[in-house]
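Notes from hallway chat w/ T.B., transcribed later so I don't forget. T.B. wanted the structure written out for a chain they're using in a teaching module, and asked if we could keep both sequence and structure tokens in one place. Agreed to drop them here.
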Amino acid sequence: RMGCQAALISLPRPGGPGYPKTDRQSVVIIGGELWETAVRGGPPRRVDFSNIPVFDVASGGWRSDEVVPPMPTARTAVAICVGLGHAWQPQGAKAMGWLPQGA
């Protein structure tokens, strides 16, 4: 996974009460790309990612639940901001409903 950004934020623990209780240190990875090997003599193909993998620091493993929803559009390179325990891609924040009404 190349071209991605990562942020350390607190998320709800798996199987826990959920938001707003965020007591689990987690690394979220946003954006990125992978180059697939050429098939039948064709050129390699770039695949952009929309999923957001989450690494649970306490357990030392990747979370299988979808605690952070995927981005509506796959992106290679992104800029992210972290504030009050949230991480978002600035352009997509409003489209994903992560900003308050009227923002």
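Follow-up for T.B.: Residues 37 and 43 are 8 Å apart (CA to CA). Might be a good example for the class.
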